[in-house]
Structure formats: C-alpha cells, structure tokens
Amino acid sequence: MVNLQDPRVLRTRQLIREAFNELLRSKGFDAIAIKDIAQKATINRATFYAHYEDKYALLDETIEQAFLGMIPEEVMHAREFTGEICGQLILLTHRYIVDFYRICRMDSKSIAKIVDEKIKKMLEQTIESIFLKEVNHQMAVQHHTRILSAMTGSAIYGAAYSWFRDGENDRIELLVDIVRPYVMNGLDLYHK
C-alpha cells in the first residue's frame, strides 16, 4: 500500500493522471494500454500498478476528482436543498458532461456507460448528503432519503445529458428553468 501523504507518491500519481488525461484526449480509453500510460508518465509498469489496480481504477479516480473539483463550496456546505442549490447542481452536471464528452474521446460505449454511472452516483451522493442535513437520521427516513436522492439525481442527470446530446448547450439557463421547477415541485409533494 502506498502512503498517500508522501510527496513522491502524490507527484507520481499526478504524473500518471496527467498522462492518462492526455491519452484520453488523443487515443480514447479502449486504445490506452498501461504501457502507454507508464511511458507517457515516465514511470515503469510496476510503478503504475503500485498506485492503481488497472486503468478502470484510474478512470474512476479521474472522474471523481474532476466532479468533486467542480462542486461549488455553497453546494458542498448546503444544509438545505433549495432551488438555488438545485440550479447549481443542474449547471454543474451539464458542464461536467460537456467537458468530459468533448475533452475525452468517448468512442466506446463501455467507457460512456462507466462515466455516466459514476457521475450519476456522485450526483446522488451529493444530493443525499444535503438531504441528510435537513432531516434527523432515523433509519426509515434515511431509506426514503436514498430513494429521493436517486430520483432527484436521475432527473437532473437525465435532463442534463439529454440537453447535451440534443446540442442545446448554448441555452443552459433554459435547461435550469425547465428542470428546477420539476425537481423542486416533486420534492414539495413528498414533504407535504
């Protein structure tokens, strides 16, 4: 196990991630071999495997770091799921989808599915953490919170992805105007 606090380890992991990101832009995920990542990062394959199980683990970390890095402080520390927070999550999700699909060559359905599932899961976890701050942590409520988080995250992700796929990317405020009332009205109905 590597010591994630060691500056050498942090630097090596950064080199690996940078090499991987460059290769994603030029080759696409399916065409990337561990040998390619190691060569571009100027490390050997054994060093790569000391840090990551495989390229899927590296992809998972890359997606997670990028998504978490885009979440505004206001959303991270939100104690209530307001219309403003909902709007920010819609914008964030759309921006992440646009960035990831434009920057990375998404020529593989398997990578697209992995990326989509990871984004959905992280969005759901972000929403759930806000919901849990609003309610007490009784087990029954937590179960409902997971369901509400899944539904809310799915609505936001599905709309943002459809907006991207349909090429409506220059009218992002309209996306928020359409999706936010839908999400917030659904949550209001549940809370009544």
TrEMBL record:
GO terms for molecular function: DNA binding. Residues 10-70 form the HTH tetR-type domain. PROSITE patterns: HTH_TETR_2 (PS50977). Keywords: DNA-binding. InterPro entries: Homeodomain-like_sf (IPR009057), HTH-type_Tx_Regulator (IPR050624), HTH_TetR (IPR001647). SUPFAM superfamilies: Homeodomain-like (SSF46689). This is TetR family transcriptional regulator.
